[in-house]
Amino acid sequence: MPIHGFGEIAEQLRRSTVLVFAGDRGNGSGVIWSADGSIVTNAHVARASQMRVQLWDGREFDAVLVSRDTRRDLAELRINAANLPAATAADSSQVRPGELAIAIGNPLGFVGALTTGVIQSVGPLGGSSPRFGSEPWVQADVRLAPGNSGGPLADARGRVIGINTMVAGRLALAVPSNAVTNFLAADPVDAWLGVSVAPVRVPRPGTRAKAFGLVLLEVEPDSPAANASLMPGDILLGTGEKSFASLDDLAASLQGAGQRVVRLAFLRGNYHRFRRVTVQLGAKNVRRSAAAA
Fold first, then answer.
1. Which of 29, 69, 73, 246 is catalytic?
2. Is 73 known to be catalytic?
3. Rg (alpha carbons) of the chain, rounded to whole number
4. CA neighbor of 87 nearest in space, from 13, 149, 138
5. Closest of 5, 6, 2 to residue 102, by C-alpha
6. Domains of the chain, residue spans
7. Structure confidence at residue 1 (pLDDT)
8. For residues 226, 231, 236 and 239, what is the CA-based torsion angle, rounded to 10 degrees?
């Protein structure tokens, strides 16, 4: 069934979607959340020390990172502009399976690309995969590609119901708009460690059991992790208080504001020898260019 005014709805969404340049770290998308220059994107998009934002009309602005939440993969940027075409957010708790979903983004260099699909569910990903944690997602069968991250997932009225983040199987996963609202209302946090990670199962010496770990795929130069001498290939096991059971646990251990320290247990090339390191977080002289955590 045709949607009345779909062309106008799509055009407005495009005008509310921006292109985020993250230096040599690649490009992503973002959503103009307020007319005075607040832009929401993914934390894994906002991972460079210097960023620029390009609006639909071609204007470009330097972007300041206001806050990042790696647990929910959200970031707020701010540009010095006014009277911007801000998106309208919907109540994501009211989204139901079977509704139309519209995604806008900048995949593979195609600015303002549109794709449509259907909402499959809203909630935690089935199977409780440690990679995705227990947080709710808006799950839709829209086709996303690199460059869509940080862009809007909208309903048939053009209201934003989520921020497109990743693909799991054949489904696109978006952070619900209600989580975005909560993120923006919270006090700014600096939970940046400066690493990208992947879950692994680590053999436990003397048993058949395996422990959960997070292997470091990348360590950003001059990051808290690098300054603590952590290296790609190291496997994080937990903090001094608890072992990690999911990616959420690492994100939770990093939450906070201001300068502070966290002690991490890890393995390096030897499953029999546990190592510990103290990482300083929130240092003002550290370059903010991290990826996933």
1. 73
2. yes
3. 20
4. 13
5. 6
6. 6-78, 92-185, 195-281
7. 46
8. -30
In this structure, how many other beta carbons lie within 10 angstroms of the beta carbon of residue 80?
A: 10
Using one digit for the tens of pLDDT, what is the confidence trace for 232-262? 999 999 998 889 988 778 888 887 767 889 9
Which pLDDT score, from 0 to 100, does residue 292 have?
Answer: 34
Per-position b or e across 113-123, b if 16+ CB within 10 A of its CB: bbbbbebbbbe
**Annotated catalytic residue: which of 16, 29, 44, 234?**
44
CATH of domain 6-78: 2.40.10.10
Q: Are 104 and 113 in contact (CB under 8 A)?
A: yes
Q: What φ, ψ does residue 264 adopt, rounded to 5°?
A: -115, 140
- CA proximity to 184, closest of 76, 89, 81: 76
Question: Which stretches of the chain drop beneath a pLDDT of 70?
Answer: 1-4, 24-26, 49, 126-133, 187-191, 257, 283-293
Spatial contact of 154 and 15, defined as CB atoms under 8 Å apart: no
Structure-block tokens of residue 192: 């940046």
Which CATH architecture is the domain 195-281 placed in? Roll (2.30)
Using CA atoms, how far apart are residues 255 and 192, in angstroms rounded to an integer? 9
Tell me whether domains 92-185 and 195-281 share a fold: no
Task: Name the active-site residue from 29, 149, 246, 253.
Answer: 149
**Quick check: 165 and 201 in contact, CB under 8 A?**
no
CATH dotted code for 92-185: 2.40.10.10
149 is catalytic: yes
Q: What is the dihedral of CA 26, 30, 35, 37, to 10 degrees?
A: -30
